[in-house]
C-alpha cells in the first residue's frame, strides 16, 4: 500500500543536502503549511544556498526527498513546480534593460508552457503584485533606475505574481540598509498573514525571531538543528552554529536582541 499524499505545501523527508561526498546538513524532515514561515539560519558557507538549490531541483539530494504540494519534486515538470514554489535568488534582478512590470511578468510566464505568451489575466496579476507591494508607480521604470531596495521588492513582486503556494527567498535582505530591510521583512510578514508559506535564509537571528514559526540552523560542519523559534534561537544553540559566543538579551515589552559576547 502506498503512503498517503501529504497535504503540506512543502515537505522534506530525511533530506540530506550538499556536494557529492560532502553532506552540508541532514537528515532533515519537516512539513510547512500555508501561512507558516521557516527561517534557514547559518554563517557564510554553511550551505543555505545549496539547500535552496536542492529544494528546487537544481541539485540532487544526497539522500531523502522533497515534496511540493504532496508530489515528489523528481516527478514535477518545470511548469508544475512553478505553481508550487516561487524562488527569489540572493542577487535579485539582473536583467536591467527590462522595466519593473516586464520583470514581474517573468513570474507569470514560469507558470505557462514554453511558447505561451502573456494574456489579460497575466497582466492583471502583474499589476496586482506591484500594487500589493507598493510598487505601482514604478511599473514602467527600468530596473537600472531602481534602488537596491526597490529591485529587491520587484523580485518579491515577481514571485508573488507567480501565485505559487510557497515563497523561497535566499537572503532577501542581503546588502540592504536598515530601512529597506524593515520594508522587505514587513512585506514578508504580510504575505504570510495572507496565507502564503515562506522559507527564507538569513544571517540575522533577529530576522528569524521576527518572522519565523520554525528555524533550521546549519553550521557548515554538517550539523543541522531544527525546531521552533524558542528552541533554536537561544544563546547556546546560536553560539554552536556560528562558532562564537552569542547572548540572547530579553527586553521588557520588546523583542529579544542577539549580541556577540566575545566568548
From TrEMBL:
<dbReference type="GO" id="GO:0005524">
    <property type="term" value="F:ATP binding"/>
</dbReference>
<feature type="domain" description="ABC transporter">
    <location>
        <begin position="10"/>
        <end position="245"/>
    </location>
</feature>
<keyword id="KW-0813">Transport</keyword>
<keyword id="KW-1278">Translocase</keyword>
<dbReference type="InterPro" id="IPR003439">
    <property type="entry name" value="ABC_transporter-like_ATP-bd"/>
</dbReference>
<comment type="function">
    <text>Part of the ABC transporter complex HmuTUV involved in hemin import. Responsible for energy coupling to the transport system.</text>
</comment>
<protein>
    <submittedName>
        <fullName>Iron complex transport system ATP-binding protein</fullName>
    </submittedName>
</protein>
<keyword id="KW-0997">Cell inner membrane</keyword>
<dbReference type="InterPro" id="IPR003593">
    <property type="entry name" value="AAA+_ATPase"/>
</dbReference>
<dbReference type="Pfam" id="PF00005">
    <property type="entry name" value="ABC_tran"/>
</dbReference>
<dbReference type="InterPro" id="IPR027417">
    <property type="entry name" value="P-loop_NTPase"/>
</dbReference>
<keyword id="KW-1003">Cell membrane</keyword>
<dbReference type="InterPro" id="IPR017871">
    <property type="entry name" value="ABC_transporter-like_CS"/>
</dbReference>
<keyword id="KW-0547">Nucleotide-binding</keyword>
<keyword id="KW-0067">ATP-binding</keyword>
<dbReference type="GO" id="GO:0016887">
    <property type="term" value="F:ATP hydrolysis activity"/>
</dbReference>
<keyword id="KW-0472">Membrane</keyword>
Amino acid at each position: 500500500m502506498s503512503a498517503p499524499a501529504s497535504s503540506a505545501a512543502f515537505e522534506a523527508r530525511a533530506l540530506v543536502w550538499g556536494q557529492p561526498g560532502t553532506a552540508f546538513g541532514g537528515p532533515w524532515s519537516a512539513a510547512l503549511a500555508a501561512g507558516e514561515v521557516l527561517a534557514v539560519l547559518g554563517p557564510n558557507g554553511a550551505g543555505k544556498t545549496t539547500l535552496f538549490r536542492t529544494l528546487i531541483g537544481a541539485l540532487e539530494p544526497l539522500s531523502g526527498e522533497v515534496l511540493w504540494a504532496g508530489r515528489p519534486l523528481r516527478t514535477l515538470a518545470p511548469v508544475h513546480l512553478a505553481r508550487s514554489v516561487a524562488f527569489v535568488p540572493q542577487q535579485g534582478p539582473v536583467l536591467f534593460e527590462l522595466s519593473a512590470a516586464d520583470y514581474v511578468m517573468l513570474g507569470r510566464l514560469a507558470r505557462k508552457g514554453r511558447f505561451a505568451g502573456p494574456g489579460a489575466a497575466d497582466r492583471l496579476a502583474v499589476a496586482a503584485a506591484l500594487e500589493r507591494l507598493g510598487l505601482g508607480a514604478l511599473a514602467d521604470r527600468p530596473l537600472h533606475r531602481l534602488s537596491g531596495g526597490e529591485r529587491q521588492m520587484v523580485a518579491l513582486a515577481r514571485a508573488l505574481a507567480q501565485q505559487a503556494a510557497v515563497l523561497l527567498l535566499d537572503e532577501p535582505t542581503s546588502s540592504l540598509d536598515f530601512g529597506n530591510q524593515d520594508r522587505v521583512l514587513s512585506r514578508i510578514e504580510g504575505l504570510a498573514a495572507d496565507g502564503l508559506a515562506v522559507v527564507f535564509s538569513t544571517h540575522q537571528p533577529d530576522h528569524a525571531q521576527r518572522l519565523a514559526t520554525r528555524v533550521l540552523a546549519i553550521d557548515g560542519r554538517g550539523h543541522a538543528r531544527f525546531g521552533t523559534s524558542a528552541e533554536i534561537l537561544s544563546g547556546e544553540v546560536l553560539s554552536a552554529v556560528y562558532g562564537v559566543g552569542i547572548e540572547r538579551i530579553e527586553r521588557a515589552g520588546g523583542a529579544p536582541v542577539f549580541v556577540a559576547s566575545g566568548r
